[in-house]
Design brief:
The protein has a single domain, classed as Cysteine protease Prp (Alpha-Beta Plaits, 2-Layer Sandwich). Helix content is 41%, strand content 28%. The chain has a five-stranded mixed beta sheet with strand order 3-4-2-1-5, sandwiched between helices. A hairpin with a 3-residue loop joins β1 and β2. The two termini are 21 Å apart.
């Protein structure tokens, strides 16, 4: 299961870990959907020259970015897609609004 924690109060924060397990490697529709959304978020944030950081690798992703009029809609779009995936595949994706996300982001940067 992929677990995603997010927050959009002061900064835009998203932390994802795990593997969906909805299919064989390379054929997992949940993994493909999550990956597409997160890689697209990373690239569009890079295009608007966002302040913050992002890191993606197999089984792990983290974003902690400045909330602006440009970044907030990108983040909201990504969350909408993730919520749709979680509704269709609840046994493979869990989304949690994480009130202490900023604290978690600081603890994860040492990773």
């Amino acid at each position: 299961m992929v677990k995603i924690y997010w927050d959009n109060r002061k900064t835009l924060y998203l932390y994802a870990e795990g593997h969906a397990g909805a299919g064989k490697k390379g054929e997992d529709p949940v993994c493909a959907g999550i990956s597409t959304l997160l890689f697209t978020l990373e690239e569009t944030l890079r295009q608007v020259q966002t302040v913050g950081f992002s890191h993606l690798e197999p089984g792990y992703a983290e974003f902690c970015i400045e909330k602006t009029s440009e970044t907030n809609p990108l983040f909201s779009f990504t969350l909408t897609g993730l919520h749709i995936l979680a509704a269709v595949y609840p046994e493979h994706l869990c989304l949690t609004n994480f009130p202490d996300a900023e604290r978690k982001a600081k603890s994860q940067t040492a990773r």
